[in-house]
Amino acid sequence: MIHFGLTPYASAFLYASFILAFLLSVLWRPIVGIYFLVPLIPLQTARYYLIDFPLGKSVVDIILLGVVLGLLVHRQRVLHHFYFCVAVPGFLLLRLGASVLHK
User: Fold this and answer.
1) Averaged over 38-52, what is the pLDDT?
2) What is the number of H-type helices and E-type strands within the chain?
């Protein structure tokens, strides 16, 4: 396996991109935070690099907070279609009921 020796720099790069994604989510476009999280959520080992930094354990929560703050700052409506207002919560309630009854 080829090793380039860039592992020590990966944690600093991820942390800097985390801060940049949070700021861009709040100040510019909230979707930036989602774009940051999509490749990061399945890669738990990549998130282990961030644990040593301040607030490194809460990266996902902070980015999601940045997305919500960005939506509030820019007054963007998320749930403006009937499908998202009725069907999705109904499905979640059915799923919750099924998981409770399964146990």
Assistant:
1) 89
2) 6, 0
